[in-house]
Every structure is written in structure tokens, then in C-alpha cells.
Amino acid sequence: MSPSATRQKTTVLLGTKTRVSRPLTGRLRSSNGRSDDRKTTLAIPTAATITTTATTMTTSTSTTSTTTITITATITTTATTGSTSTSTTTTMSTTTMTTTATDTITTTATTMTTSTSTTTTTTQCSIFSTQTTYSAGSGSSPNYVAAADVNDDNKLDVLVANFNVSNIGVFLDTGNGTFTAQTTYSTGSGSNPISVAAADVDGDSKPDIIVANGDANNVGVLLNTGNGTFTAQTTYSTGSGSNPVSVAAADVDGDSQPDIIVANTGADNIGVLLNTGNGTFTAQTTYSTGSGSNPVSVVAIDVNGDSKPDIIVANTGADNIGVLLNTGNGTFTAQTTYSTGSSSNPLSVVAADINGDGKPDIIVANGDASNVGVLLNTGNGTFTAQTTDSTGSGSQPDSVAA
């Protein structure tokens, strides 16, 4: 008996079995010449109705017949999650059917090709709510802020250097993300405070205030009285015309008491004032940053893995970053410099491990170059040449955090 071609319609239902049960539509002619009407139901794991064309049908003369049918079934599923739409197209072809006396057909898909295309739409969203503002006083020109829990309620309070009115403002955290009006502490008439830091300098577990008084050529220390208020400042000279602009606190001599590091932009040096242990400090020891270097930002951190804080400084007049290594007794080597680019005007520097190797790297805001520079730590206290990322034409970044 010669093969014959049959067209049949297949209804595809949800399910996990590829199985057909009675009745069948379409005619299959057996060896005894009988024709059977049989309805074919295929169950595959996708909801769709598919019309299939059997281009080849071969029937054996035994009780069990094997039929080879070429089927092309294309199923497209689109799933949308959030702003992402995913379309999946599945194609099955060349199916073998085996028919027994119980009219059960087993199908085997010999080819299955699945292609998936994903379209993602990105919608800009705001990470922060609209700012809430707190007055630092008319004409105050706040220049620098720091955060520390100054009243021991486990909430971060805000300290601000108010340049034009020569005071430090303290805003206490009320506990719900809002702050009290500031309480101010004088830094001296015409002192023009530029930078502020917080550290427990007298060992009572309460953060005190350290301030760089730019036009007074001194560093001021205000001791915490324990309830979020502070004593009048005690001042330490940084030298005539020194114009201190940036302060940091770190234990540089290994006595467990934070010392003061200050960038003296007018004197082209870094000053180090060692803590005597009761909240007072020695006269500063200075380290040159180079003639005309004008250091403006300083940070203390261990860059060479010897557990001693080293000094990193942004030298805006020299267009470089200086690194001074701690020798272990509170003194430092001469600086090693790393270029930030011609006329880059580096204004702010921080240190953080940005590539996950456990070593602090350098991040610098290059004001006149309108970029941020990154210098990776090589692991022995030296750094790679900087790579830069633009902050936008004319943006002139003057501060960076990490």
C-alpha cells in the first residue's frame, strides 16, 4: 500500500505529557483496509492553538503503525516584568508518532529551537527625597560639614563650619531624620573657619570638634561636655600666613590618641600636632608639599599595610597628589607625588578601596579639569597613574566622598 498524505488539525492544550487519546480526526488506513476517525490531542507546556500539516505519512502493515510527520510549530510567549519585556519563540519540527491498538500516540520532538529577545526600558528615578533645609544664619556661608554622634543618643548630628560668621554650628538629630536649630560656638572674630572634623581627643568617649581657622592661622579644639555642648575652643598656631584649610584626625604615633593633621595652603606644608593624652596638643611639626603647591585637602589612612596612618594631600597649585608615609613614630617621609593633569586644580581627596583588593585607593576631584581621578593602590604604598571620569563640561567639582 502506498503512503498517502493527510492534513490534520492539532489542538494544543496545557500539560506536561506529549500524548494523544481517542478519538482521532483524519483518516489512517490500516492493513485490513479499515479507516479510523481519530481526534488528535497533543499536550505541550505552552498555551496555543497550532495548525499542523503532515507532509509525510508512512503506515506499516502490522497492528502497530509508525507514522512520521513533519510538524512545524511556532510558539511565541511574551512576559513582562516591571519595565522588561521578554519574548520567547520556540520551534519544534520532525515528530515521530507511534500508533498502537489502544490508539495512544507517543510523540518525540527531534528538533527544538528556542530564541529569546529581551527589551529593557530604563526609567530615571529619584533616590533621595526633596531636601529639607536648616538655616546656618544669614550670610553665614557654610563651607564644610561633618557628622558625629555628639550627645550619645546613637544618632548622627551635624557639625558645620560657618565661614563668614566665624563659628561652628551644631545641629542635633531629633531621631526621625530631622534636626534642631543650630547651636553656635565662636571660632574668633575674622577667623573664617574652613574645615571641621570630629574625634574623641581627650579619651572620654565623646567626639570633640577640631576646626581649621583659615584666616586666624590656627587650629581650634572644642571639647565635648557630654550632652552635646562644647567648651570654648583652645587654639594651636599653624604659623604666620599659613592659612590652614583642611584638618583630619588619626593616631599617627601609635599611642591610641588621635592626633591632628592640617593642610596649610599658605605655607605649602602639612602640619602634624601630636596629642599629649589629655586633649591638648604639641606644637606642629611641618612637612613640605613643595613651593607653590598650595595643599587644600588632607586625609589620613594606612596605604602600605603597616597599620600606621599615612598622609594623602591634594596640592592644587602643583596639580598633583602627595603621599607621605608614616615612619612609625609619628614622623613622615618626604611626599611622593602623582600627577592629576596639567591645570587640573585638584581640590578634594578621599581614600577608599574601590577595586576590592583590600587596599585604599585615591579618589580626587579635579576642579578645573571637570573630572574625578582615581589612583589605584599597588599594595606597597605606591599608586598607579590616575584614570579620570568626566563630571561634565564646566562642572568644576570641588568635593568628593566615598
Automatic annotation (TrEMBL):
Start and end residues of each stretch annotated as Disordered: 19-39, 383-402
InterPro entries given in the database record: FG-GAP, Integrin_alpha_N
Signal listed as a keyword: yes
One Pfam family of this chain: FG-GAP_3
Keywords: Signal
Transmembrane segments: none
Domain of life assignment: Eukaryota
Protein name: Uncharacterized protein
